[in-house]
Specification:
A hairpin with a 4-residue loop joins strand 6 (121-129) and strand 7. By secondary structure, this protein is α+β, with helices and mostly antiparallel strands. Helices cover 34% and strands 16% of the residues. The strands form 4 sheets. A 6-stranded antiparallel beta sheet has the order 2-3-1-9-8-10.
């Protein structure tokens, strides 16, 4: 991923000091693009770019142009169908580079502002038409790439990949909404991404496992487009394991394989003895990847918290818990010379994989919650996956969030996605079944049917316990009791949340910055609406998967009511086991008996 900063319509266009200031602010994004820097000024407009070179490292420096340089564009992202566009709609155009992003300038020449939906990929871009000094900015469908927009006192519009590049200069700023474009010609935002699922209408297409499998395989294959070394993030859970399995199956014969070989590198991070490390090693051995296992201590993570909050630009508890191990792992990966990884984000939102979905009362509520989760991804997992990796100049690609795959998966009648113990269906059953191939197995059965483990849990349960203990040593009861006066918006209700909020506001004290972070109650990553599904949850509001009482095999508390013990899910077993388990907590870890 790259970093972009655009300043459009500033008052002091002839000032050398203004150019110097834009360069200074752009350097705040250099971690996103350490390979090259570019700046183009046209009158009162500046387009700045910090490049991470993945495609055409030799000649793809930005900003990019059309043939006569009248169209200037700065882009962060990947356009997976750029070769097809070059040979079809843009066959009459002359290209200066091999960059996948150059097609944007030429598509604008051909189609004006109506071309954005033609792009198959993830992107944030600002395009300047020097002929009439108008500009266009756009962000990808669900917000895989980050983007912010701000307005300064002199009337200028600021657009940047990260908040840190514009928050000091703007009177007001906000998240640039995913799936939208901003046009200076029309003076505002317009949604360009309008898929059928966005209305939250209940779909009725019957489940076709082969169609779902093919759609995901196609999404992974697209993301093998690279001119630099790459690998996969492998936690050993279902989603990352499928990413690795499909990549292994289709890597041979690709341009990437011809350049870098067919041995796939996989990466995992965790505390010593954590669930993810063990599961990832098993999957890596099964698939035959070149596996790299990174360990960190609770203290390592705590020491990195301030850097994590600065880079992720959030005080959301879930995001910080999960971002920290990913942030540490990304540094190690980059040190090995790898610049791109493929990851498994998005599956849980699309298929209802979080454990609280077990309590969905009906298929309508189940589907609406998946829609709400996808719409919010840009503030949670997309933000984490992008910013925690980009902090070290590493790009993360997410095939589950491919536009075509989302459309395929979200068109399925949600009755098929529901957790149905009576039918042996656990969470994400439709995805598991699609890859349950007896003749040519993608994964071992017990991995294919492993229970969902949130990343911040899977790296080791004592990670979260350690964070809570550290926060408790830094936030007093008196501080927390006055939280509503100190932090009236999104008031922290735990010492951990209070601790993160203090750090965040030290870096980003402005009110608009505080408003960019979502809030509200959550259990096991649910939306506030889904808490209504179970009366127990309102008293156990914690984003960890272990907060899904009666669902997670390592839930926080012992369940006296055995009706809450899942009868169809057991660790390392098939979906038909009927033996219940009792749970006993032993601080700081969790012991399972039975």
């Amino acid at each position: 991923m790259c970093g972009i900063l655009a300043v459009l319509g500033c008052a002091d266009e002839s000032s050398q000091a203004k150019r110097a200031r834009v360069l200074e602010l752009s350097r705040r994004l250099k971690h996103r693009g350490p390979d090259w820097s570019g700046l183009r000024q046209v009158g009162d407009c500046y387009l700045s770019h910090q490049r991470l070179a993945i495609i055409d490292p030799a000649s793809g420096d930005q900003p990019l142009y059309n043939e006569d340089h009248s169209i200037v564009v700065a882009v962060n992202g990947e356009i997976y169908n750029h070769e097809e566009l070059r040979t079809t709609q843009l066959a009459a155009h002359k290209f200066r580079t091999g960059s996948d992003c150059e097609v944007i300038a030429h598509l604008y020449e051909e189609h004006g502002e109506e071309f954005v939906d033609m792009l198959d990929g993830v992107f944030s871009f600002v395009l300047l038409d020097t002929r009439d000094r108008t500009f266009l900015a756009a962000r990808d469908a669900v917000g895989v790439t980050p983007l912010y927009v701000g307005w300064a006192i002199d009337g200028s519009v600021w657009i940047a990949s990260e908040m840190k590049a514009l928050h000091d200069e703007c009177e007001h700023f906000d998240i640039f909404p995913p799936g939208h474009l901003y046009s200076s010609k029309n003076g505002g935002f317009r949604r360009w991404y309008n898929p059928p699922w966005f209305s939250e209408a209940i779909p009725s297409v019957p489940y076709d496992p082969l169609a779902l499998r093919k759609a995901f395989e196609k999404a992974v294959i697209k993301r093998l487009m690279t001119d630099v070394p790459f690998g996969v993030l492998l936690s050993g859970g279902l989603d990352s394991s499928l990413v690795a399995a499909v990549t292994i199956r289709h890597l041979a014969g690709t341009k990437a394989a011809k350049r870098w070989g067919t041995k796939l590198h996989s990466f995992c991070v965790g505390l010593e003895g954590s669930p993810d490390l063990k599961a990832a090693k098993e999957v890596a051995d099964y698939l035959g990847t070149e596996h790299h296992e990174f360990h960190f201590t609770v203290q390592d993570g705590i020491d990195a918290i301030e850097d994590v909050i600065y880079h992720t630009e959030t005080y959301d508890v879930t995001t910080i818990r999960a971002s920290t191990p990913m942030f540490l792992m990304s540094r190690k990966i980059k040190a090995l010379g790898v610049k791109m990884v493929i990851s498994g984000e998005g599956s849980d939102e699309i298929f209802g994989g979080y454990l609280y979905f077990h309590k969905a009362p009906n298929k309508e509520e189940f589907h609406r919650e998946t829609c709400r989760k996808i719409k919010a991804l840009h503030q949670y997992d997309c933000l984490r996956a992008n910013k925690a990796t980009s902090a070290w100049g590493l790009e993360a690609r997410v095939p589950f969030l491919d536009k075509e795959f989302i459309n395929e998966a979200m068109s399925i009648d949600p009755e098929w996605k529901m957790v149905r113990p009576d039918l042996g269906r656990i969470e994400k059953w439709v995805l598991r079944k699609a890859f349950d191939d007896e003749e040519q197995p993608f994964l071992p059965k017990h991995i294919l049917y492993r229970q969902k483990e949130q990343f911040s849990d899977g790296v080791g349960y004592s990670w979260i316990d350690g964070l809570k203990a550290h926060a408790a040593s830094n936030v007093t009861d008196k501080m927390l009791s006055n939280a509503k006066f100190i932090f009236p918006h999104n008031t922290p209700t735990t010492k951990e949340a209070y601790y993160y909020r203090m750090i965040f506001e030290r870096f980003f004290p402005q009110k608009p910055a505080i408003l960019t972070v979502p809030g509200g109650p959550s259990v096991a990553c649910s939306t506030a609406k889904a808490i209504e599904w179970d009366a127990q949850w309102s008293g156990n509001l914690d984003p960890s998967g272990r907060a899904a009482l009666g669902v997670h095999l390592s839930a926080y508390e012992s369940e006296s009511d055995q009706n809450h013990v899942p009868t169809t899910i057991t660790a390392g077993a098939g979906a038909n086991s009927k033996k219940p388990r009792t749970i006993k907590v032993e601080a700081p870890g969790v012991a399972i008996e039975g």
